[in-house]
């Protein structure tokens, strides 16, 4: 999938695409214009990060820490990014904050701030297992279930294997994340451990230690599995940022980097597609149960059963 940063939703001829100031002098903008735009975007980001969240409901949440190099400082920005799926199935940016090395304290501060502004606990959060986010979400939103990102997990597993084993391991891992049901996935995971655990126990442990949270997505609608297995909405959005920062060596300051990243996401968001079968998202929030990705018939004897579609 091509990065969405090139797909801009504004058609007004007098609007300057936000990435020009971020991606270098080829855009032809004067220093004064860049300064003015950056200040404007910082103000917009502050308003965005102070808005009420009481009227929106994020059922699913993707999270990641994105590192952006700053030219005039020795350290990198760690952008804490949260993208959510509303009850109507649409995706949108929930929060973007400057974190400290993806620490649990930084994530907890962000989540507590969102909660104070009215955010409900998401049903499921998706992210890399290395994030400090998980400790934070257990403290702030303990009811939120966890799903580890398969994109990151596969990279971690392969890093623990010799390159000669990669082709077979990739195929065996695909049998897990692309299985037709959670039971099938569990059997595929056991087969992976049996095949690779003897010679490379560290690689096998990366699957067995996180198996429950790697397979959590199977408890939700089958149409949503493709969305819930990875943090792709964040990865694909920031792909161009990562590419271009290597060319331009990043923004000139932390404040500029955060403001311009906010504007990039805001622009890309206009072209984001809703999740598959968006009507099922509200049922997930209502507590509907799914087996092999299919909605179970309601049980009127169960609490709340009359709220679930058959």
The strand order across the widest sheet is 3-2-1-4-5
Mean pLDDT, to the nearest integer, reads: 84
Strand content: 5-15%
Principal-axis shape equals globular
Element order: H for helix, E for strand? HHEEEHEHEHHHHHHHHHEE
Biggest sheet, open or closed, and with what strands and sense?
5 strands, mixed
Gyration radius over CA: 21 Å
Poorly predicted ranges: 1-16, 304-310
Number of helices: 13
Structural class by sheet pairing and helices: alpha/beta
Report, as a whole number of angstroms, the end-to-end distance. Answer: 35 Å
Total domains, how many?
A: 2
- Helix amount, in percent? 40-55%
Oligomer: single chain
List how many beta strands DSSP finds: 7
Task: Please give a structural write-up.
This protein has two domains: 196 residues, no CATH class; 80 residues, no CATH class. The chain contains 13 helices and seven strands. The protein is 45% helix and 14% strand. A hairpin with a 2-residue loop joins strand 6 and strand 7. The longest helix has 20 residues. Strands 3-2-1-4-5 form a five-stranded mixed sheet, sandwiched between helices. By secondary structure, the chain is α/β, with parallel strands linked by helices. Helix 7 packs antiparallel against helix 8. The two termini are 35 Å apart.
